[in-house]
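Render this sequence as a predicted structure.
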Amino acid sequence: MSRMREGQSAIEFVVMMALALCVGAVFLFAALESLTRSAQRERTAALNDVGYAIQDEVVLAASVQDGYSRTLTVPLLAGRFAYSIASDADAVTLSSGDVTITYPIPHVAGSFAKGANVLRKRGTIAVTQP
């Protein structure tokens, strides 16, 4: 009779451990999803900080008279995230991880790069790197 009780106790122990492992795995998966969403929001906010700053500077340059000149420093990192920047005449695109955001800008000759960028307005808006 005692062997049967030991066997039943062992089976109960294994079932309880399996249940605990399943609950732990679900908890870890939920925590990972939450962390991923939080990092994605932080990445998007950091890219928006850089993108809107560039967009604001170009809109300002478009609204002032000829002779405007200003040095705009585009940061090497967006917050704590590495990113890439690509620009054409009418938009600036920032990419980091899975996030890619395009910011429309007034027509600009030249392209933006990380580091110092000089915006000048003499009839048209031009961006150069010093």
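Summary. The longest strand covers residues 115-122. DSSP finds one helix and nine strands in the chain.
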